[in-house]
Amino acid sequence: MDLIGIGVILIGIAFIILAIYFSKVLQQVGNILQDVDKTVGELPRQLNGILDETGNLIKNSNHTLADMNTKIENLTPLFHVVGDLGESAQALTSSLVDVSSSVQQKGDHTATSEQNKKLGSIYGSAMLGYYIFKKRKESADTQYEHKRERTLARVQKLK
After folding, report:
1. Distance CA 54, CA 133 (A)
2. Theoretical Cys-Cys bridge with 5: which of 1, 94, 117, 132, CB 3.0 to 4.6 Å?
3. For residue 59, what are the CA distances in angstroms to 25, 53, 69, 70, 73?
4. From CA 46, how far away is CA 32, in angstroms rounded?
5. How does pLDDT run across 82-120, given as a tens digit for each residue?
6. Could you say which DSSP state residue 20 is in?
7. What pLDDT, in 10s, does the model give residues 65-82?
8. Are the beta carbons of 88 and 96 closer than 8 angstroms?
């Protein structure tokens, strides 16, 4: 055999080795493509589930929004009433300020002794009320104690 024959045999052996290597690579690529095909085949089912959940979420959001709008519509008159009440309170307060300032101006003209007499009578009335309240409480406590002592005495007699 000459060198050309040996070269052709070596080229053939190299070609066979390359063919085996490429077949293994192509087999792995085929497996990868099968996995991709499975994944792509499952995508519509998964997307349908996601889209169904998204649809339910949108429906629930719409119901919640409609409910909130209804409640806000029901509360709007209440807010108007509260606003009107605030305006009325402001008007009342301003008129009370006017009255108190006019009373204060009149009070500035009265004698200090008259004011002291009025304050003294107010303080005296308050102290009298406090004294009466305190005495009533003491008498109620005393009656409670007497009742308790009588009950304890009866219990001890029964023993």
Report:
1. 70
2. 1
3. 50, 10, 15, 17, 21
4. 21
5. 788 888 878 778 877 777 777 766 655 555 666 666 666
6. H
7. 999 999 888 888 878 887
8. no
- pTM of the complete model beyond 0.70: no
Q: Using CA atoms, how far apart are residues 16 and 145, in angstroms rounded to an integer?
A: 118
Q: Is 125 helix (H, G, I), strand (E, B) or coil?
A: helix
H/E element, 107: helix 3-109
* Alpha carbon 106 to its chain's center: 53
DSSP 126-147: HHHHHHHHHHHHHHHHHHHHHH
Q: Where are the domains of the chain?
A: 112-159
Residue matched to tokens 């409910």: 67
- Report the first-to-last Cα separation within the chain, whole angstroms: 138
What span, in angstroms and rounded, lies between the C-alpha atoms of 79 and 39? 57
- Closest CA relative to residue 10, chosen from 89, 1, 61: 1
